[in-house]
Design a protein that fits this description.
Length: 334
């Protein structure tokens, strides 16, 4: 690990500690457990295992072979720039790309399948941003880091840019009740992005920015009300298991129903719960590791306010996972 990687890792871990502390003392949604639903899936499988595996795939099997073949990095397009200018250039240009790709994912039934996992969490916190489909990560991080390598940027730019991404991703998803005032017109934060994760009809096509909020304001997709969401997550049932979430993007199924019908799947499906139960039965002090349920007060998507009254249910949005694959995909504006 290089000197820069050690520094950026320390910054990231320190930032995690700061944000967790802020969530405990200044929560946006009160009563959310630290070990909330999906915590271990997001931490172990998405943050640690998937991130490590896809880093190898993206750099060793996509970007570096491209550079060896085309030798673009030898042209040194940005090599002479100061490192801070290189970082700023790649941060802004990638953020512009991610705004439009993110917006496209919410409009495309096919590409929504690669993004819905990110919206499946009903308890959004500092770790929720790590839940992203493997294909979505491969696409976005290849497009993010390939130009850095191929344009001959300083090697320090990769870990610095990755650290900025992680710090910002934690910030915009964190359960912190922050009031940034006019800064929210420029810098994206939890105020607008937590709304993006709400199951409210008015934000199905809103708040796509990641780092710079001005993309939403410039292109007319900003939604910044003076109240908080009432419902979170997806308007239909979504698997809770990492591998099931990826299979669900290809073939729709009901996870609980499959567990009832298949002994093999039922045995696999309950491994994590049984393991945690054994541990907490032996050490009762560890029972908070299970988390606790947070009841939903609204069973269906919150309809948008309209002149003359609201729809009782969104006409374009399915309420359950019982729809066909084609109708479910077509009804997903997000």
């Amino acid at each position: 690990m290089s000197h820069v990687e050690i520094i950026t890792t320390a910054i990231l871990l320190g930032w995690v500690a700061v944000v967790i502390t802020l969530e405990r003392f200044f929560p946006y949604r009160k009563g959310l457990p630290f070990f909330r639903e999906g915590f271990w899936t997001d931490l172990v499988l998405y943050t640690l295992v998937q991130s490590y595996a896809l880093k190898i795939v993206i750099f060793d099997y996509i970007i570096l072979p491209l550079d060896r073949h085309f030798e673009f990095s030898k042209l040194h397009f940005v090599t002479g720039w100061p490192v801070w200018v290189q970082v700023l250039f790649f941060v802004v240009t990638h953020d512009f790309y991610i705004y439009w790709f993110h917006r496209f994912q919410h409009s495309s039934p096919l590409f929504w399948r690669t993004h819905e996992a990110h919206h499946s969490g009903k308890q959004v916190d500092w770790l929720a941003g790590s839940r992203s489909h493997a294909l979505e990560i491969i696409i976005n991080q290849t497009i993010e880091f390939a130009p850095i390598i191929l344009l001959g940027a300083d090697p320090m730019v990769v870990p610095i840019k990755a650290c900025i991404d992680a710090v910002w991703g934690i910030w915009i998803h964190c359960n912190v009740n922050v009031k940034s005032g006019r800064l929210q017109y420029f810098i994206n934060g939890p105020e607008m992005h937590l709304w993006h994760h709400a199951d409210h009809e008015e934000v199905f096509y809103a708040n796509f920015s990641t780092k710079f909020a001005f993309w939403d304001w410039i292109f007319g997709t900003a939604y910044f009300p003076n109240h908080k969401p009432l419902k979170w997550g997806l308007p239909y049932a979504f698997p809770k298991d990492y591998f099931s979430q990826h299979v669900f993007s290809v073939a729709r199924f009901d996870e609980e129903e499959l567990a009832r019908r298949s002994k093999i799947f039922r045995a696999y499906h309950g491994i994590r719960r049984r393991l945690l139960t054994r541990i907490t039965d032996r050490v009762p002090a560890l029972r908070p590791l299970h988390g606790w349920p947070v009841p939903e007060t609204h069973p269906t998507t919150i309809p948008a306010h309209r002149p003359g009254g609201n729809f009782e249910a969104s006409p374009n949005q399915p309420a359950t996972a019982e729809h066909s694959v084609s109708s479910t995909a077509a009804a997903l504006p997000r």
